Amino acid sequence: MLIDDIIYLVILLICVGFGEVFRGIKEPITKQWVSTCFGILVSYIVSGVHVIHPILCTIITAFLVVYLPQR
């Protein structure tokens, strides 16, 4: 269990350091894509291939919200 705790701590420190880089991004679209990609990367590092399920659920839900008619 110790190695998992070390990995978790390293990921947290990387996220804190990434905040400095993230604050330097001025363009909103770039900021959106960088945060999305970084979030997916961190999720993949933490969860492995199990991150596929929430990503698919999000894509399917977004599709349903956009393309199904309102009641």
Task: Give a structural overview.
This protein has 71 residues and is mainly alpha-helical. It has one domain (2-67). The protein is built from three helices and no strands. The longest helix is centred in the N-terminal third of the chain and has 22 residues, at 2-23. The mean pLDDT is 92. Keywords: Membrane, Transmembrane, Transmembrane helix. The chain crosses the membrane at residues 6-25, 37-68.
Provide tags for this entry.
mainly alpha, transmembrane helix, single chain, transmembrane
List the SSEs and their pairings:
Blueprint: H1 2-23, H2 28-47, H3 52-67
C-alpha end-to-end distance: 50 Å
**Major β-sheet profile:** none
Number of strands: 0
Give the H and E element order.
HHH
Count of structural domains: 1
Structural class call reads: mainly alpha
Helix count, per DSSP?
Answer: 3
Poorly predicted runs are: none
Helix content: over 70%
Mean pLDDT: 92
Report the radius of gyration as a whole number of Å: 16 Å
Beta-strand proportion: under 5%
The dominant shape is: flat
Give a quick summary of the entry:
Keywords: Membrane, Transmembrane, Transmembrane helix. The protein has three helices and no strands.
